[in-house]
Amino acid sequence: MASVQTIEIVKATVPVLEEHGATITTVFYKNMFNEHPELLDIFNETNQKLGRQQTALATTVLAAAKHLDKLETLLPQVTQISHKHRALQILPEHYPIVGHHLLGAIKEVLGEAANDDIINAWSEAYDEIADVFIQLEETMYEQALWDGFATFKVVEKSAVATDIAAFTVIPVDENQVIDLDKFTLTAGQYITVKTDPTDSDNLALRHYSLYSAHTDEGIKFAVRRDNRNEHYGLVSNYLHDEVEVGDTILLSAPAGDFALNQDLMGQNDIPLVLISAGVGVTPILSILEAQIASNPKRPIIWAYACQNEQHHAFDKQVNQLLASAKDVEKQVFYFDSGKLLDDRYLATLPEPADIYVCGSMPFMESIIDGLTALNHGLDKVHYEPFGPKMSLQAS
Ligand SMILES: Cc1cc2nc3c(=O)[nH]c(=O)nc-3n(C[C@H](O)[C@H](O)[C@H](O)COP(=O)(O)OP(=O)(O)OC[C@H]3O[C@@H](n4cnc5c(N)ncnc54)[C@H](O)[C@@H]3O)c2cc1C
Ligand code: HEM
Asked: Does domain 149-255 have CATH number 2.60.40.10?
């Protein structure tokens, strides 16, 4: 536990660092990648270019520092980040590197204002925060279904909608036995793919949600070609264009805490509401599958939005699953025909409900804002952003 003096200094200096937060983390990344170019194979090049990770790390360290005397209250947020760290294979030895360059950047940006007392206090605070992550990640490494990035072979690749390809892969790793029959995958989780795309000087890692937790044919995920803003998405285009049946790819074991609330699965008086858009259907489909396998009597509301019928992914699979449920309401919204999944629709949802949402960031923001305005408690709304999750709330 950090000393009282450290806690006081850290809390008193948070506002100054918040003011310079973006500059500090920009300097931090520049210096860290100069000294450790091997880390460019772990960090997401596009997030770096677009400044996404900068914001996430800065706000998280500051938010954690504010809670230095009660770090345990941040466990839900740390858990979500640690899942990503474990999936990306961030190791304990990486933490001192980040600590060293973060402290260096604070010194560089604050100049003389960063006296020894301040630097020592932040050093102690960072070690304390890093320790929480390292300990949690140690448990996650122990529980992971396999070690590191293992080799899998693509046994099936099919188009499930315009620009969405589904992959089924089986383990063929030479260094470890991965017996899928012995695994129970959790619906809602994601695997992480490690690729070496021709368009980049570095390796590129990306997460893809399982669209089914069944492993009888292999591990199943689906990828949308991500070509927004006239920029070609590095990994999604590589998987679409260069990875075919028979090829091998590297995957780390499933991760993530977006999952069905087990306590409510059996409760037929609290409906399950599944809302998704576009390729955001993937984790939601596996959650639907898990609910029906466990309790098909629970009322289910399925709402899905996409551009048009050609972009509608997995409709057949959804209909097959819904056919075995007892009490179902299904709504499909095609933007092209002007039918929107908007606040008017959200207002028709029952309360209380157990709600799961996945889609693009703007879609999710609008759904979450709409649900919050309708007084659906945020503890009942679960969501999985397909990008860096909102960082810790500084309160
Ligand atoms: C937990 C989780 C689960 C996920 N599950 C899925 C899933 O099931 N299916 C799925 O398809 N995706 C999923 N994703 C998203 C996936 O991980 C990738 O982010 C996605 O495939 C894009 O990666 P990419 O390398 O193709 O694009 P990137 O190269 O990372 O680019 C991302 C976006 O930024 C744009 N861009 C790139 N450079 C610039 C620039 N300079 N200026 C402006 N825009 C730019 C690109 O056009 C693209 O739209 C998930 C993500 C997370 C975090
Ligand atoms: C206490 C220290 C750390 C904090 C507070 C922290 C915080 C975060 C946060 C908030 C995210 C975004 C999570 C999301 O996507 O939802 C993240 C992702 C990530 N972190 Fe950390 N992190 C820490 C240490 C490290 C270390 C030591 C490394 C490795 C050198 C690392 C590498 C990454 C990578 C590669 C990502 C994925 C995002 C990307 O590539 O852009 N982190 N971290």
From this structure: no
H-run or E-run covering 274: strand 272-277
CA–centroid distance, 294 to ligand 1, in Å, is: 32
Q: Tell me which CATH code domain 262-385 carries.
A: 3.40.50.80
| 336: exposed, middle or buried (Cβ count in 10 Å: 0-12, 13-18, 19+) | exposed
Distance of alpha carbon 329 from alpha carbon 302, whole angstroms = 6
Q: Give, using CA atoms, the residue closest to atom 9 of ligand 1.
A: 223
Q: Give residues with Cβ within 8 angstroms of 299, minimum separation 6.
A: 268, 271, 272, 326, 327, 328, 329
Domain boundaries 4-143, corresponding CATH code: 1.10.490.10
Query: How confident is the prediction for the chain on average, in pLDDT?
Result: 92
Q: Above 70 in pLDDT, residue 52?
A: no
Fill in the DSSP letter of residue 389.
P
- The secondary structure of 128-144 as a DSSP string is HHHHHHHHHHHHHHHH-
The token duo for 49 is: 């270019």
Q: How far, in Å, from the CA of 253 to the mean position of ligand 1?
A: 19
How far apart, in Å, are the Cα atoms of 109 and each of 20, 106, 134, 167? Answer: 8, 5, 27, 46
Tell me the domain boundaries of the chain.
4-143, 149-255, 262-385
Q: Express each pLDDT in 178-198 by its tens digit.
A: 999 988 899 999 999 999 998
Q: What is the pLDDT of residue 392?
A: 35
Q: What whole-number distance in Å separates Cα of residue 163 and Cα of residue 293?
A: 30
Q: Is the pLDDT of residue 228 over 90?
A: no
State both tokens at 235.
């990994």
Residue nearest to atom 8 of ligand 2 (CA): 57
Tell me whether the CATH fold assigned to 4-143 matches the one assigned to 262-385: no
